[in-house]
Hints:
The complex is a heterodimer.
Chain A: H1 3-31, E1 35-36, H2 37-47, H3 59-68, E2 72-77, E3 85-90, H4 92-116
Antiparallel strand pairs in A: 1-3, 2-3
Chain B: H1 8-18, H2 24-44, H3 50-60, H4 64-82, H5 93-98, H6 104-137, H7 143-169, H8 186-195, H9 197-239, E1 255-257, E2 260-262, H10 270-303
Antiparallel strand pairs in B: 1-2
Amino acid sequence: MTDTDLQLKKFQKELSAGTVSLTLLAVLARAGEPMYGYQIAKQLERFGEGVLSGKQSALYPVLRNLEASGLLDSHVEPSVAGPPRRYYRITAQGSDVLREWAAAWRATRDSVDSVLEGLIP
Amino acid sequence: MTRTPSTIPEYLDQLRVALAGADPALIQDALYDAEEYLRSEMAENPGKSEAEVIASVAGSYGAPEEVADIYRDTEVTVNKALRPPPRPPRRSLLGGFFGVIADPRAYAALFYMLLSLATGIFYFTWVVAGASMSAGLAVLIIGIPFVILFFGSVRVLSLVEGRLVEVMLGERMPRRPLYADRGKPWMQRIVDMFIDPRTWSTMLYFLAMLPLGIAYFTLVVTLIAVSLAFVAAPLAVWFFGADAGISVDGWQLLNIHDDIVTTSLYPWSLPLLFVCGILLLFATLHLARGIGKLHGLFAKHLLVKSAAY
Lengths: 121, 309
């Protein structure tokens, strides 16, 4: 792995630290129904590489931490195929936070975009 | 680089090895998550063999070593991002001593110590009643399901106590039940539950919670009552017209009889008493925080550590 690759990897990791929480909240808010970890991971996979610049296992600790901060709610349901599944749902507080985070994200994206504009690729 | 795992138990074993040395509570959660993902992937692709599914999972979920790294990292960064930052420690000795009044951890520990009388009685009764009924019913046919139910209930209680300890004492505890190998037949899983040292150390913890709970409760109530009385006696004399230096029925710190409040202390000693009461109140908070920390370690050791592979 070259030095540039390493730098890129490090940058992606730092970027995703904040955006993963934001996208998880957004996915659950859009779904409108409880989803379990694997479902969420596959859903994100459909949105493309950029959303989750790493492995899907990174989702689970984030889900758990979001739940611990009261932004998500969860319950366990038995399943036919495997272990009982933990379903997550966004809370009212989570929706409020999502609205603020989305606004912060858009503001950041716009200002970063305008700085990058006119830059040769 | 270890060889690619071909079965789910093998994958989980490698993950466990890769996580060796991490917080046992984190290991328990990581194994649970990985198992959920792998089994869901299996259910989604019924045509594929276990080895094929695991090979494809290395790309999406991550190989055991990668997953271990992600858990070590993500837990820390996300936790830091989502929780309010801890206050910087006070530098001065005086600030360190009196700063405890603003530390939520001290109050939570105080509350845990009061609550532990109730939970201690409950856990103790549950284990003693369950164990003796299991022994008594062992000769009957219903004895076997009863024993299994009882052991299962102890595991659930262990998770509940773990949540209490994490919320009130701040010690990271598992948030998911212990990973149980679902590939094994039912009988084997039941046997595993009996030979798991954690089941037994959990019962030991629950038995110890009765004496500990009584001790914690007594300590907190006594210290709070004494320090409040120390503060109240001088205030009663200075502002509410209570009499000092009077002994009714022997020496009394604070005597309330009908509507007359008296203290046996002489007026000159009251300021000293007041200061002692305040200091004792702060010292109690420090003590509660310290005991909370120790109890968290104790709980972790008996409820989680013995399961660290």
